[in-house]
Amino acid sequence: MSSDDILNQAREIFEVYLEQNRHRKTPERFAILEEIYTYQGHFDVETLYSRMQNGDCRVSRATLYNTMELLLDCNLVRKHQFGEKIAQYEKCHRVRQHDHVIIADTGEVLEFCDPRIQQIKATLEELFDIEVLHHSLNIYARKRKKKTDA
Questions:
Q1: Is the pTM of this model over 0.90?
Q2: Domains in the chain, start-ordered, CATH in brackets?
Q3: Rounded distance, CA 132 to CA 129, Å?
Q4: What is the rounded CA–CA span in Å between residue 12 and residue 143?
Q5: 94 backbone φψ class: left, alpha, beta (φ>0; ψ -120 to 50)
Q6: What is the 8-class DSSP label of residue 85?
Q7: What percent of the chain has pLDDT over 90?
Q8: Mean pLDDT, rounded, for 9-13
Q9: Which residue in 38, 55, 110, 142 could disulfide with 101, CB within 3.0 to 4.6 Å?
Q10: In the chain, what are the helix, strand and coil shares in percent, each to the nearest 5?
Q11: Please, which pLDDT band fits residue 106 given cuts at 50, 70 and 90?
């Protein structure tokens, strides 16, 4: 599925969500959605705000924060709190399952996917007769110091 197809599906989901919850369907809200779904990786609200101020559609911070809440509520965006850093967000519609390694020194976020995690989830479901709805795995690390030969 192409990124345009994913964006179009996200738009449809957002439009239905707004209608069902009696929110206005404004061009600014859809511009924010598009900006998020064309962005690669994690972002904070201030980064998104700066990108939008430099683009074609300028939005207020209030509109941005309010729209982020709506996008979280309809599961088009996921929020992460990596340690004490400011909240990070990422698009999540049709994004493959992944987990995170956070480099403590720099705040860099690395994504990885390991099929063993899916096996662990399946084992938990069977063992406890549950259905895993969502999981979050964040590993905090620090870069190793390079050894110098003296």
A1: no
A2: 1-95 (1.10.10.10), 96-144 (3.30.1490.190)
A3: 10
A4: 42
A5: left
A6: S
A7: 47
A8: 93
A9: 110
A10: 45, 15, 40
A11: confident
